[in-house]
Structures are given as structure tokens and as C-alpha cells.
Amino acid sequence: MSTGILFVVATPIGNLADASPRSLETLRSADVIACEDTRVTRTLLARNGISTPTIALHEHNERRVAEKLLQALRSGQRVALVSDAGTPGLSDPGALLVEQAHRAGIRVSPVPGPSAAAAGFSASGFAAAGFLFAGFLPAAGSARRKALDLLDLPWPLVLYEAPHRILKTIDDLVKQFGPEREIAMGRELTKKFEELARMPLGKARAWLEADSHREQGEFVLVVGPGEEKRAGEPIDPDTVLATLLEALSPSEAARLAAKITGAPKNVLYRKALARAK
């Protein structure tokens, strides 16, 4: 029997109408849907009359459930992987299952669609060939400062932030990048109370505090690019990797460390996995 297919399916980040016809058909035709939270995904499924069985796959059970799903894939089943919102593997669970599917020779097929990072960047207006996605910053002050120092690069920087930390994050960004560096702040993107505004970092706190509702909801922050840095001492890839691992998954930390330092991503990924264990 031929192996099945693992579909990596992007789902709406807020507005359920953003689900593509292809993503819905993939979820409908799958044998099982692996969800970050089955309760969240069932809202989307119920809206579209989809009755496919679901299984929870999140950061606390990913290794155990991944093995069960790999057995299903080896037996020829079609598995759809989704997160609560957006694209799986981007600051969400799923990367481990996808990696193991590749290693097992199982076909992995992306079903692209909504991404909060791409949405925020596209609406920021920062002209650049690409951007640096760092997800959530470390919660601890010292680790956060180290991460921001590493991320001060000549590309737009995309961050996610929770409402209870948004003011602290803005203050840290001002300290690191200065009040004149611009930022585009997206709040509740695609939802009823969506707001997106671009301004100098020095005015961001006042903008948030001008309306109490602005400190609610999930944020996508796009910080304008920094200046090209003059060549100096080389950046130690292991130091960069260790700092990023305080906030990111091994795969995301390795990807970002490789982009920052130029070191081979596969080497950094093996080191990241070793540190994670």
C-alpha cells in the first residue's frame, strides 16, 4: 500500500470567510485533522459542514501524537495539519510532525493561505525584498534584550505579541531601535475590531494608551529595517542560536540564526535539537 499525504493547511487568522475552497476541500477529504486545539478548529468545520475526525496535536503532546499520525500516514491515510489560526509551523506546533514525515519518505503538501506575519508585512508599507520573522520575543528581560540586539538588521522585523505584554514590548523596541524607527502595528487583523497603524516608535505607546481597547487582542508588529552594519567581528552562530532558542522552536531558531550569521541551517538545526533534548 502506498503511503498517504500530510497536508499542511493554512486556516483563517480571524475572519472565517478567508478559508479558501481548496483548504476546505482538503479538510473535508482528509481521514483525520491534526489540530492545535480541536475546539477552535471545530468552529471552522461546523461552519462549513465538515465532519472529518480531529485529533489534538500541540506543544505538550506533539512527539507522542506525531508517531500515531505517522503510522496512519504509512497505512495510506490522508492527514491534514492545522493550527488555531494561520499557517502551521510559524510560531505554532506542527514542525516536528512535518519533519518526521519528510524523514519517513511521506509526501508533504502545503495548502497555503492566511498568515498573520505575511498579512502584517504586506500592509506595513516597508519596501523590502523580504522580512525577518522572529515570532514572540523572550519574556525575560535579559533574554529579550539579547534577542533584540541580534535582530537589529537591515530588514523589516515581524513580531507577534500578546496584549498583556504589548506596552512593555513597545518600550523595549524604543530603547533598542530609537524613537524615530517606524513601526506598523496590526491588532486583531481580519477581525471585527481590526486596526493597523504606522508611526514612529516614539509615538506607539501614546497611540495604544489613547484607547483602552487598543491594548486588547493579538498583535502583529512590523518594525522598519535598520541600517547596514559595517563589517566587524563575526557573529558567533552558537550564541545567536542559544538566544533564539529561548523563544523559538528548534526549526525556527535554526532558520533565523542561519539568516543572521550565514551559518548552514542544517548544522544549526542539529545543534538546536541537541539543546532542546
Characterise this structure.
This protein is α/β, with parallel strands linked by helices and 277 residues long. It has three domains: 110 residues, Tetrapyrrole methylase, N-terminal domain (Cobalt-precorrin-4 Transmethylase, domain 1, 3-Layer(aba) Sandwich), CATH 3.40.1010.10; 107 residues, Methyltransferase, Cobalt-precorrin-4 Transmethylase, Domain 2; 40 residues, no CATH class. Helix 6 links the parallel strand 6 and strand 7. The mean pLDDT is 91.
Keywords:
3 domains, 277 residues, five-stranded parallel beta sheet, alpha/beta, 17% strand, Cobalt-precorrin-4 Transmethylase, domain 1
Biggest sheet: strand arrangement: 3-2-4-1-5
CATH topology (level 3) name of the largest domain: Cobalt-precorrin-4 Transmethylase, domain 1
Mean pLDDT: 91
Helix/strand/pairing category = alpha/beta
Q: Count the domains.
A: 3
Mind describing the biggest β-sheet? 5 strands, parallel
Rounded to the nearest angstrom, the distance between the terminal CA atoms is 34 Å
Tell the overall outline: globular
Instruction: Specify the CATH homologous superfamily of the largest domain.
Output: Tetrapyrrole methylase, N-terminal domain
In sequence order, what are the helices and strands, one letter per element?
A: EHEHEHEHEHEHEHEEHEHHH
Number of strands: 10
**Beta-strand proportion:** 15-25%
- Give unreliable regions as ranges: none
CATH class of the largest domain: Alpha Beta
Tell me what the CATH architecture of the largest domain is.
Answer: 3-Layer(aba) Sandwich
Give the proportion of residues in helices.
25-40%
